[in-house]
Amino acid sequence: MDGIMEVPVRRQNMGRKKSEVLVPEMAVPGFTLGAFILLLLVSSVANYPNGKVTKSCRGMIPEHGHTPQSDPPCYISVSQMTFRPGEKIKVTLSGPPFKGFLLEARDENLTGPPIGSFTLIDSQVSQLLTCEDIQGSAVSHTSPSNKAEIKVYWNAPSSAPNHIKFLATVVEKYDIYWVKIPGPIISQPNVLPFTTPKATIAPMPTLPPVSHLTKSFNASDCGNKKFCIRSPLNCDPEKELACVFLSFTRDAKSVMVEMSGPSKGYLSFAFSHDQWMGDDDAYVCILEDQTVHIQPSHLTGRNHPVMDSRDPLEDMAWRLADGVMQCSFRRNITFPGVKNRFDLNASYYIFLADGAADHGRIHKHSQQPLITYDKYNVTGYPENVGGSHSLLLLKVHGALMFVAWMTTVSVGVLIARFFKPVWLKALFGDAAWFQVHRMLMLTTSALTFIAFLLPFIYRGGWNWHAGYHPYLGCIVMILAVLQLLSAAFRPPLHDPRRQMFKWTHWSMGTAARIIADALVIGVICC
Question: What Pfam families does the record tag this protein with (predicted)?
């Protein structure tokens, strides 16, 4: 565990007398490997869209939760209007600068999967997607940088239908996009040109009405008529600008929800079966251009919420004044057959969060969300409850891992590396440096073992939604145990197996330190 390999001593002639000088015989780029792993662990994946939009292949609709625009400014052009199987057709998507796009070829009736495949011309701005198990059947952006023109080749398959229509979805910014922009219809030779049947223009979908609140929410009925969650506990949304407030008032078949907090960008809350993000029924109020949008959503893992239809919400209203954002809506207690809307007759943990937003896209909250200490039924007896932004067991887990892998193990490694040749005085039967080193490493292992157990006690088992952290934590724990076992069975100094022990002990110790330090720093930074 010490991460230090014992090395032979080389005797050098120092003038007229000889002395022993410790010279390392190898140099392992552990820092480089550690930095690489650390970058992988703490790099953010949620700041910019990367075009990996295979989930939207079928409907070509971005999961942004906004209404698509009409009258698209972009258009699709092709190099020729006829094609033969196996032939390549150049396809160009152009218009005013846009950030994202999705380009596909379909049959003329827009039924079935994408047709054919594409070949990239510039892989810096475009990439191929596998849509509906057809490799390269769609093209999307690689970054959110502005682009005004995209050129690709479409490869006609051997079993192509008589007519092909190109479609594109274009995103100008997060809340402004056009869906299924129609392009030209190309046909095989000796086939009658496709004639578009006269279509009935469907009206644009209308959103539920939203009104303005005339006065601020109040907490006077909390615990009497309202079920309330507040941070800080017992704060007053009428008088305290920093008060984050959530209330539920039940009537016969529905619940009236009120939410208030600082107007940083968004407020949100979620019902959850556990105290971890993932598979949750969530609701978001987003500030955009001095307007508050109220949006139901659902959470999948630790990703951005997926915005859902506003149809389940009624009586939506909002208010923006004095640096405070407030929103309210009504939802039914039950939604039979609706997957992402929970039955409010049951009890749930409740998450309450706020953070920044840009053009309708929410950013990661700057602090951990407030989570209730227990499950509650918001349609039951009115209560006034609080929660915590960081639960005690997880705080202790983090503190123990920090002390173990940033303090005791580091001091233990320094003792072994620099004090070994000079701190040779016997202490309890062994060299002093070795006894101190061993004590520090045993302390590291003990702290790691205690910290390892705490998340399991808190969670009541394994958490399948916590990402890479628990898996790498298990690796650290296994390496720590193996280090203890290898040290316990260390061969004598002149045993032929001693060299193998040195390498094994050094390798496992270094690997454990790299992974543990990366996890600790990753949690602190992200």
Answer: DOMON (PF03351), Reeler (PF02014)
Those residues whose C-beta lies under 8 Å from the C-beta of residue 32, and which sit 6 or more positions away, are none
| 80 and 152 in a common domain | yes
Distance between CA atoms of residues 327 and 318, nearest Å: 4
d(CA 304, CA 64): 10
- In degrees and rounded to multiples of 5, residue 516 shows phi and psi of -65, -45
Cβ–Cβ under 8 Å, residues 141 and 152: no
What CATH number corresponds to the domain at position 163?
Answer: 2.60.40.4060
Residue 244 domain-assigned (yes or no): yes
Query: Is there a domain that residue 196 lies in?
Result: no
Dist CA 492 CA 359 (whole Å): 67
pLDDT of residue 168: 94
Taking only the tens place, the pLDDT of each residue in 332-380 is: 999 988 888 999 999 999 999 988 887 777 887 767 788 998 999 999 9
Q: What is the pLDDT of residues 198-209, one digit of tens each?
A: 444 444 445 567
pLDDT value at residue 16: 38
**Phi and psi of 408, rounded to 5°?**
-65, -45
Spatial neighbors of 497 by CB under 8 A, at least 6 apart, are 491
- Expressed in angstroms, the distance from the first to the final Cα of the chain is 27
Give the span between the Cα atoms of 229 and 223, in whole angstroms. 10
For residues 394-426, one letter each, b for 16 or more C-beta atoms within 10 angstroms of the residue's C-beta and e for the rest, the string is: beebbebbbbbbbebbbbbbebbbebbeebeee
What number of other Cβ atoms are within 10 A of residue 366's Cβ? 10
Residue 201 lies inside a defined structural domain of this protein: no
User: What pLDDT does residue 417 have?
Assistant: 86
Q: What's the token pair of residue 485?
A: 């076992």
- Give the C-alpha separation, 164 to 113, whole Å: 12
| Domain match, 139 and 165 both | yes
Q: How many CB atoms lie within 10 A of CB 343?
A: 15
- pTM of the predicted model over 0.70: no
Identity of the amino acid at 436: V
pLDDT at 207: 55
Which residue type is seen at 204?
M
**CATH, residue 380:** 2.60.40.1210
Entry field: residues in the chain: 526
Q: According to the model, what pLDDT value does residue 498 have?
A: 87
Calculate the alpha carbon distances from 247 to 236, 307, 313, 326, 382 in Å: 12, 22, 16, 12, 10
179 and 231 share a domain?
Answer: no
Name the helix (H) or strand (E) containing 1: none
Q: Which two tokens stand for residue 135?
A: 């490799």
